[in-house]
Specification:
The chain contains eleven helices and eight strands. With about 300 residues, it is α/β, with parallel strands linked by helices. The chain has two domains: about 150 residues, Nitrogenase molybdenum iron protein domain (Rossmann fold, 3-Layer(aba) Sandwich), CATH 3.40.50.1980; about 120 residues, Rossmann fold (3-Layer(aba) Sandwich). A four-stranded parallel sheet has the order 2-1-3-4, with helices on both faces. Strands 5-6 form a two-stranded parallel sheet. The structure holds zinc ion.
């Protein structure tokens, strides 16, 4: 009888979860809510299934301009650890925390690293802000990913002290993989024939470029919406590809690569993708694709671009 009752209860909970669109949470575990993919993946690597892990951004969705629903907001306020990026795109999260989340356990990735301000590179479309914001794409450099993983490991161990040893062991193995990733990027740059890349749309890779000493030209700054790119910007990028005889022009994930193709048609270079890891497609998410996978693919594309 007890078993039937328990089964009925489970079924009711499942139906409610489906109806409310809320993820199913194991009540015996702390809940960690992440805004976007990088921290979701880092926490998955450190904590495994020791926590209920929720990513707010739907796989395949555009994360800039994310607007949480009421139920997502209440999930954040009720969770045990909230991990957001911080900066302009997460202004809503900072508003929510300042109004309601005084006691909420929250970590912003931008607080775990040294940030640089957003900048307008030569030829880039847009206006230089009087008070530039910190560039929020901190995870794009493996060195920063290491700092972030260290910070998140501390937060998770404080949340679940009885699992700290196991999680630190996971983190150590993962940090080793990130260190190898970083040295592999540097190894490619050490033998590179050129140190310039051209990016045909918005450019969230400043931290990676700074780390590798890569010069870049791009159409738009980091988090700008997919605004129309002017003819003069496209011409400027075509000139850069021609002048420096670059073999590759980059596009970003989830983009039709229209501008990159225009540049490629004009110059004969190849269009490749650099994945910013903001979010992954539904297919990649279901296949369990990781930050390391995406950054390894990026490394292969970068290798072609600098040789
Ligand atoms: Zn962004």
């Amino acid at each position: 009888m007890k078993r039937t009752l328990a089964l009925l209860l489970c079924a009711a909970l499942l139906l409610c979860a489906l109806a409310c669109g809320k993820p199913q949470l194991d009540v015996g575990k702390p809940t960690v809510v992440c805004t976007i993919f990088p921290q979701y993946d880092f926490i998955r690597q450190i904590a495994g299934d020791r926590v209920n892990l929720v990513m707010l951004a739907k796989p395949g969705s555009e994360v800039h301009g994310f607007d949480p629903t009421m139920s997502e907001m209440s999930m954040i306020l009720e969770c045990d650890l909230f991990v957001y990026v911080g900066g302009e795109t997460d202004r809503w999260a900072e508003d929510l925390l300042s109004k309601n989340g005084k006691d909420l356990n929250a970590v912003a990735l931008v607080d775990l690293v040294e940030t640089v301000d957003e900048e307008l590179a030569p030829g880039m479309q847009g206006e230089q802000e009087e008070k530039p914001e910190a560039d929020e794409h901190v995870w794009t450099s493996p060195v920063n990913a290491i700092r972030i993983v260290n910070g998140l490991t501390d937060a998770l161990c404080a949340l679940l002290p009885e699992e700290a040893d196991a999680m630190r062991a996971n983190a150590d193995a993962y940090l080793k993989a990130l260190e190898t990733l970083d040295s592999d990027y540097h190894a490619v740059m050490d033998t590179a024939q050129r140190k310039t890349i051209v990016f045909a749309e918005r450019f969230p890779f400043r931290y990676l470029c700074e780390e590798l000493g890569l010069r870049y030209y791009a159409a738009l700054p980091g988090c700008s919406s997919n605004e129309e790119v002017s003819l003069s910007t496209v011409s400027y990028l075509i000139e850069r590809v021609r002048d420096e005889q670059l073999p590759v022009v980059f596009k970003i994930e989830f983009s039709d690569g229209r501008i990159a193709k225009t540049i490629a048609d004009a110059t004969g270079c190849e269009v490749l993708e650099l994945h910013s890891c903001h979010n992954v497609s539904r297919e990649d998410f279901d296949a369990g694709v990781t930050y390391l996978d995406l950054m390894r693919t990026n490394l292969e594309s970068l290798k072609k671009a600098v040789n």
